Amino acid sequence: MIFLILLVVVLVVGINVFFQQEQFGKRPSGWRLQLVQNSPNYKNNAFQNLSHTPSLTEGVSMTSVLKEFVLNKNEFKKPNQHIPTVKTDLLNLNPLENVVVWFGHSSYFVQIDGKKILVDPVLSNNASPLSFTTKAFEGTNVYTTDDFPEIDYLFISHDHWDHLDYKTIMKLKPKIKTVITGIGTGAHFEHWGFDSELIIEKDWNETITFEGGFEVTIVPARHFSGRSFVRNKALWVSFVVQTPTAKLFIGGDSGYDSHFAEIGKQFGPFDLAFLENGQYDKSWKYIHMTPNEVLQAAMDLKARALFPVHSSKFTLANHNWNEPLSRISELAETSEIKLITPLIGEKTNLNSEKVFPKWWEFSA
């Protein structure tokens, strides 16, 4: 009995110490907590989606999800060879070019109208607080933080590990001029030593106006947040970005819902929409979109072009690693929306008319 009590005490202390690591960040407190609590989207001590949004589909338990994920024998959840990639010299881009460079999953760099934007960068080798789990696919880590110029605007859609990577953020810290995110998420950045004046946190439907004709509106997504067992203390968001020459939709993780049509009605049409296309499953159908829903969301947004992300670097679901791109590619053939699917690391003009090869077909 004494041994069991000691074992429980050791486990409790160990877990507590583990969650005190810097990489977990901090929950909002002080004036930021007051900001959170004053939000119309914060109810019952947590942020809420616009529609009822269970994390798991009705009838599904976390135990069954974990069991299915661990016991699933799908050998194509990961590629059977290195992902093909290229490497663009980000430090010496022509400043007059309007380009995007994708780094796999939901991390990408946009240079537009003289400004440099970075979205949800995860450049370390995994997307988890445990370095030996959720490892990046072979060949996808071709960039390091040394490859990046100064970043005018860092966009963080929410604080999940596959979108907000502590190691990457800390190495990029000297290069980041402004952080733009949802309310509550700034607590992590301030805890990590960022100047509070560099952090801009906004609620859904709030707008930030910058010099030079840049305007950013924080808009809803359908998801959740949290870096530990405590959820929804920071807001998950997407972004409408108006530049002098273009309008972009930068989507965070989201299930399909009517908010896409509302955003399209208010802000569309969009020249380009980045939408999360991957890591979906019938067991969590409310918080991630299938490719069919992604294409519908792009149409709802009135997007002229679609850049699907959230795939090709980590295994977070049971589908084949290349299924998201394969399915969206097939679906887009019957749509007037231009599909942009470059290699990881490939420089692509924002107005590109290029027909992209199906590079993901090297593996079943």
Mind explaining what this structure looks like?
This protein is α/β, with parallel strands linked by helices and 364 residues long. It is 21% helix and 18% strand. The strands form 3 sheets. The chain has a 7-stranded mixed beta sheet with strand order 8-7-6-5-4-3-16. The protein has a 7-stranded mixed beta sheet with strand order 9-10-11-12-13-14-15, covered by helices on one side. It is globular, with a radius of gyration of 20 Å. The mean pLDDT is 94.
Task: Supply database-style keywords.
364 residues, alpha/beta, 18% strand
Can you summarize this structure?
This protein has helices spanning 2-19, 30-37, 62-71, 166-172, 186-191, 259-267, 291-300, 323-332, and strands at 42-43, 46-47, 99-102, 108-112, 115-119, 153-156, 179-182, 199-202, 206-210, 214-220, 237-242, 247-250, 272-276, 305-309, 338-339, 347-349. The protein has 364 residues and is α/β, with parallel strands linked by helices.
Topology:
Layout: H1 2-19, H2 30-37, E1 42-43, E2 46-47, H3 62-71, E3 99-102, E4 108-112, E5 115-119, E6 153-156, H4 166-172, E7 179-182, H5 186-191, E8 199-202, E9 206-210, E10 214-220, E11 237-242, E12 247-250, H6 259-267, E13 272-276, H7 291-300, E14 305-309, H8 323-332, E15 338-339, E16 347-349
Parallel strand pairs: 5-6, 6-7, 7-8, 12-13, 13-14, 14-15
Antiparallel strand pairs: 1-2, 3-4, 3-16, 4-5, 9-10, 10-11, 11-12
